[in-house]
């Protein structure tokens, strides 16, 4: 058993380009965290969507050179995997209690305490965005900012609840079958990249399909059960005082949810970017569309890409660093109405 664990650790260090895995035992189960970068820098934590981990959810963004230079220059990255979603994860014991969304949010505070982190920047996708938003509500003093991609905040609609029950039954009876993968890929990606009978699916979809094969169906089911039982947290959104930047693809099944969430946040501290011809996972499908809004967002904390540096990249992130005029969406370069971005075919040729 020890040998197989060692081999997984070595493989992970290769895959994560020097990132180191930590298995942290919390009061609500063990969690894998991949740490990448200089731990003296401010912390950015990530949390992926259902059935994904950082490789399948955030790699596109971190492989985008401009975004990587902005994020990796200014932050140490802590990629948190939902329990049992990390690379090489074994099936979680069926007797272990299924965690609630509150349990998953409470795991994060234990992770921060384990690493001795104070307040952190957070980035999450869909289910992961919900967990991080709930975390920000429960532990406001530990969150500096939220970058949310196709987020959830309401309890599941009847449509989503039914859809999740179908996925649950597929997971329970058939495991990671082709039909289940198609359901999940529709959740993540727009039809433009999923392909048709005439057009093959894109490389990012093919890569995600392969990575889904590595997930243990019982572990996905546990995370899905937690998300399907989530409460509505809309009422708590107005009390958030950290700055929030929301991205959503206009083809995302959760597009309306992101619009609703934005309408409930304090407009002085939040902004929405809609990305055209894109599904839920903007981080993978159109990561370049995130760059300019993120740059303006980070300027509010005195953070810049290396070519624009005017100070130390290690300057601490703290609310006192934020000039009041940079707290408004207009000053972030964002209009109060949603921005739509489109990559034209002419530009890409």
Automatic annotation (TrEMBL):
Superkingdom assignment: Eukaryota
Keyword annotations from UniProtKB, A to Z: Membrane, Transmembrane, Transmembrane helix
Ranges annotated as spanning the membrane: 114-137
Keyword Transmembrane: yes
Gene3D superfamilies from the UniProt entry: alpha/beta hydrolase
InterPro entries registered for this protein in UniProt: AB_hydrolase_fold, NDRG
Keyword Transmembrane helix: yes
Any Pfam family the entry gives: Ndr
Homology family: Belongs to the NDRG family.
Name of the protein in its database record: Protein NDL1
Gene name, Swiss-Prot/TrEMBL: LOC116198091
């Amino acid at each position: 058993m020890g040998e197989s664990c060692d081999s997984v650790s070595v493989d992970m260090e290769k895959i994560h380009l020097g990132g180191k895995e930590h298995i942290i035992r919390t009061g609500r189960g063990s969690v894998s965290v991949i740490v990448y970068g200089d731990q003296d820098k401010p912390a950015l934590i990530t949390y992926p969507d259902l059935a994904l981990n950082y490789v399948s959810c955030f790699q596109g963004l971190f492989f985008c050179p401009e975004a990587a230079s902005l994020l990796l220059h200014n932050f140490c990255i802590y990629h948190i995997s939902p329990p049992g979603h990390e690379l090489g994860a074994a099936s979680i014991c069926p007797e272990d209690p299924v965690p609630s969304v509150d349990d998953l949010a409470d795991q994060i505070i234990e992770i921060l305490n384990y690493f001795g982190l104070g307040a952190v920047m957070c980035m999450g996708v869909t289910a992961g965005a919900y967990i991080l938003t709930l975390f920000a509500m429960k532990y406001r003093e530990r969150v500096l900012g939220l970058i949310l991609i196709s987020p959830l905040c309401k309890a599941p609609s009847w449509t989503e609840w039914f859809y999740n029950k179908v996925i649950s039954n597929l997971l329970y009876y058939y495991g990671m079958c082709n039909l289940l993968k198609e359901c999940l890929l529709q959740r993540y990606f727009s039809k433009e990249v999923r392909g048709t009978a005439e057009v093959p699916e894109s490389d990012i979809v093919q890569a995600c399909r392969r990575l889904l094969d590595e997930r243990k169906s019982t572990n996905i089911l546990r995370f899905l059960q937690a998300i399907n039982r989530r409460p509505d947290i809309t009422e708590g959104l107005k009390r958030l005082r950290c700055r929030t930047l929301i991205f959503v693809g206009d083809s995302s099944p959760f597009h309306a949810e992101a619009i609703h969430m934005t309408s409930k946040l304090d407009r002085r501290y939040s902004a929405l970017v809609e990305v055209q011809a894109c599904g839920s996972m903007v981080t993978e499908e159109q990561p370049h569309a995130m760059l300019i809004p993120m740059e303006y967002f980070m300027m509010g904390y005195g953070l810049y890409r290396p070519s624009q540096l005017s100070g130390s990249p290690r300057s601490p992130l703290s609310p006192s660093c934020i000039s009041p005029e940079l707290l408004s969406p207009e000053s972030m370069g964002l209009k109060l109405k949603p921005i739509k971005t489109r990559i034209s075919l002419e530009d890409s040729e």
